[in-house]
Every structure is written in C-alpha cells, then in structure tokens.
Design a protein that fits this description.
This protein has about 230 residues and is α/β, with parallel strands linked by helices. The chain is built from ten helices and five strands; from the N terminus they run E-H-E-H-E-H-E-H-E-H-H-H-H-H-H.
Amino acid sequence: MLVIDGHDLVGTALCLALRRAGNEAHQIVLGPHDVMLAAAGAYPPGVVLMEPAIGSATSGWDVRVPDLVAALTRTGCRVVALAGRHDGPMLGAMIMAGALGAVPKSAPLETLLTVVAAVAGHQLVMSGGDRARWLDDYARYCWRVEVRSGHVRRLSPRELQVLRLLATGHRAAVISRVLSISLSTVRTQISSLLAKLEVASQLEAVAFFHDAIADAGSIAPDRRPSEP
C-alpha cells in the first residue's frame, strides 16, 4: 500500500498506523510527476491512498493530480482519495481519471482499513449515486473554469496589465506612474475591463483575477488553461 500526502508528518503517521494494523505501507514523497511514478513503480501495484490537495500551490510542487491518478491506474494501482472538506471538484477529477472512491481524511482508522480492504479485494467502495454527484460537481467546476477563461481572454494586453496591478494592491494613480500612462487612461482601462469581465467593482475584478489564476492550475486532466 502506498500513501501520497502533502504533509510529510501526516503521511508518516498514516503509514505507521497502517503498519501497526498489519498492512505493508510505504510513503511516496512529493516531487516531480515522473519521480513519483518511478518511486511508486518500485513496489507491486496495490492500493494508493492519495490526498487531493497535493496539487495545490501550498504543496510546493506542480502536481497534476488527475494525471498522476491516471498514470498509477494504468500500472494496475487502485487509487483512493483521502478527502478533505473542500476537495469536491478535485474528487470528481480523480474519479474521472480512475480513482475508485474516497474516504474522509478525518475518518477513524477502522473506517480507512475497511475501505482499503474492500478496494484491495476489488469490491465497490462508491455507490453509483456518489459517483454521479462527484462527477456532476466536477462538470460544474469545469464550466466555471471555461467561463472565467473566456472572460479573461476578452481583455487587451494593456487591460490585463492594469488588472494585474490592481490585483497586487496598486491604486489607479500608482498604475498611471508604473505604466507611464495618464490617470484618465487608467480609469478608462479599468471601466473597460470591468465591463468585459461582467463585474461591478474593482474588488470583484480582483477576485475574478485570482480565481482565474487558480484555474491556471486546473484540475481537469484533459485541459491546460493558460495562466492569464
């Protein structure tokens, strides 16, 4: 059994708990995609417990979780997500990529062991209803990504520059000096980008921008939206 968790101490503790329960468990340290696959390949294909959040910015690695799930599944591994409270869309992406189900990260060890035993025995651990719900969440997420991406592509290069500066906390007067353009031009650019993003305020535009940046590391296994 393999454990892939974004927190070394958590992953180590989980491996120790699984070993005490009589399971052979090994931790895969986060790293580049190919390195992690090679590390997993050193063990016979089996159950892989994977935290969805290993692909987040806080992990320190650009891990595309669905791609990793798909690659592990092709080797014969059976992937189960160690789900947190906010992993809904990622769970859908993992399931679409081949994961067999999910178990809450906060679940008692007995629950985790039951799921692991079922997966190892090729038993179903996810109902059709749960699968449909996760995939539906994922589909809605992908739709929001597409909408945001389309709106950002409407912006001119200059409007995008202005938006980036707004997002880093600069006021119009400062943006005017940074870009060497008049204050009235900056205000015109701001009005234009608000209209194109279909938002009512600079605060909403900045929030939209940060969401679009997050989408640049999209969880979708078959799309690579460009960072705006």
